[in-house]
Amino acid sequence: MGHTFLLLGFITFLTFRGTVSFYYLAMFLFTLGEILMTFTEGPYLTTRIPASHRGRINGIMSIAQSILSGFLMLVLGFFYDNKGPYVSWTIVICILGTSLVLCMVLIVLDRKAYPALYRK
Asked: How far is CA 74 from CA 80, 81, 99, 109, in A?
């Protein structure tokens, strides 16, 4: 759900560029998406990673996230300068859409790997 709200926020931002009232809607959607992702990411990882490895994995994830986001910002800055904002935001939306699809695949695979976590 968090990724979905982020995607809706970016689509709102791109669709209604220049209309200030829609910026508030986009910020609301971004905030809701970030909150949902924050609430779910920690518990998801702690139920699947042994306590002895959590620190190492969190460290590696933090470093990888920093490197990837820095690289993505560099590439998007290049596209923004050379192709304009529409192309840049479209790339962001495509990346986030791909991430959303991969999360859906992860949910299906996770239900198979950890069926006990999904029992009511």
From this structure: 10, 11, 19, 33
